[in-house]
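LOG
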Amino acid sequence: MSIKLRLIIMNFLQFAVWGAYLTSMGSYLVKIGLAGHIGMFYAMQGIVSLFMPAILGIIADRWIPAHKLLSFSHFMAAIFMGAAGYYGMSKGADVDFGTLFTFYSLSVAFYMPTLALSNSVAYTALDKAGLDTIKTFPPIRIFGTIGFICSMWVVDLLGLQNNYGQFFACAIIGLVYGFYALTLPDCPTCKGGKTKSLVEALGLRAFTLFKQKKMAIFFIFSMLLGVSLQITNGFANPYISSFGSVPEYANTFGVQHANILISLSQVSETLCILLIPFFLKRFGIKQVMLIAMLAWVLRFGLFGAGNPGNGVWMFILSMIVYGVAFDFFNISGSLFVDRETDKDIRSSAQGLFVIMTNGFGATIGTLGAQAVVNHFVDFNSEVSQITQWQSAWYTFAAYALIVAVVFAFVFKYKHQPEKE
């Protein structure tokens, strides 16, 4: 089997694990009376991302080969996710928040670092094979998104998106991946010589970039935009499913298969990656970031205005817009950081970008979104909650618009178009 095919399978499984529950867990939490804690479950991913990838990264650099640590991490994540599923199955509607949250938190604490470990394994394998990572890796990485989508569809079609079964699905895929990871090419450790310190691994050296006004403003807005990243993952499925309480929409495709509808977002994400080189070259980072911010306004606004019936086109358009909102921000931002920082702190700067967006930004965003949803939506009401949910989505859209307007005036960056 070629190294490319082996890495394609690796990426497929890596994100299939995540796709099994990431977009549907919110609906299960609503069903068992934990709707008020959705934000905390999703925020935990950001919290553990602040330190666990760095800790496991140092271990992989110095003591345990990355592919073996990748395997161990997925085994542990699968065991704890399986425990969460078993607890949910045994308790039914009497699930205790503390117990379920503990099992879940331990699982994501081991899973989140594997996003970086899998990249390390891929880069090492491609280097050993004498292949150009910049040209070879992106097409391989796309299969990760395909794995995520396939996992969403399987969970949906098996009727698991509203129950504990999604945790079992995640655990099973994780166990398969844990065994498969042991077959991946060996990743040597650094027994001596130059290794990353904890300060370097955490990206703390890059905080010196805050001395530069341009970079300081960029990282602050990265955090503010990162607030939007996990909102729809946590709340889109519960919102679309809530239309089931209205007879007019109860039997629509969107209500019955919310996960499949939401998966259009990931399809769009895959396709929009191809647009980034053109837009960055033509318009520059400021305009591309502004496009991403306005796309988030549309993402949230269309959710509020749409419905699974005659307004389903607005839901679909929101899914399409997501690709622009996510990719134009994450990938373009990463390329900007790479271009504007010195080589000796390039890795630390990328680490800081992740910390600001997926760490601080996403954590603040999910907890803030939960507060907004709790303010507007009464989950204990027998009355339809559709209009209440709409108020929450319009609030998110207003936030994204304010960030975009302020960014347009505050961030100063003159784009120099590249000559052909």
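LOG (cont.) second protein
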Amino acid sequence: MRSTPSRPRSMPDRAGPSDSFAIDLRGVTFIRSGRTLLDDVDLQVGSGQQWALLGPNGAGKSTLLQICSATTFPSRGTASILGSRMGRVDLRELRRSIGFVEACHPLGSSLPAHEVVLTGATGTIEMVPHWVPDDRQHERAEMLLKSVGLEDAGALRWRTMSQGERARSLIARALMADPRLLLLDEPSTGLDLVGREIMLRTIDDLPSTSPGLTTLVVTHHFEELPRATTHAALLRAGRIVAAGPVDEVLTSEPVSECFDHPVTVERAADGRWRASA
């Protein structure tokens, strides 16, 4: 099945930016070394919504996430994150309100889990020399570890953690600064079946443990979508194929168009998705 992505389904007409959007991308294009990685992308993510971003390899998902994290500027178009338009605000200040979880966290030393979480307060990879967290910060770090299911984290150190323990500690780290937007880039990468389920339960609990938090999860696998997902976007060849309420977007027709192959999508009684080609 060969086709050119049509006008995205469920996408609003372009208008002015709105503070009700945690992410507001209008005509965003990104070009690197002469190659167009994102092409005229419109995407509006409402505050407090839980989004999933799916698409084949090379679709531009990581590039889109970098723009949403206010670390990469679009080549053309406008990107407003948490009501602040990139290019008109102090990005260092804006990034304090954004939590970003990547599967490959470049931590070299074997910090205890508690200190891994504390680095989220400073936005650094390692603990800042001579910085002494106050009691409130220590208490928040402990609370967050418990909230992600690491109640007995005292003996855990980065180098000896399982992949699942690392993934959950990184979510706690991202929440340390009490962000308004949480971006998760394939958080289940490398996890076994049990580790993946614990991770998904942690993400599913975020709307109750962190009320008002907006999340955007990038994944390749439908079975890794949290049940709490409210909206979804499909990305193919740098263009949005469909975006909107999850039960409208994650259906067989738009998913087949996105992956350029017949795909059957089903949502099971337990609220999880299944896809077969």
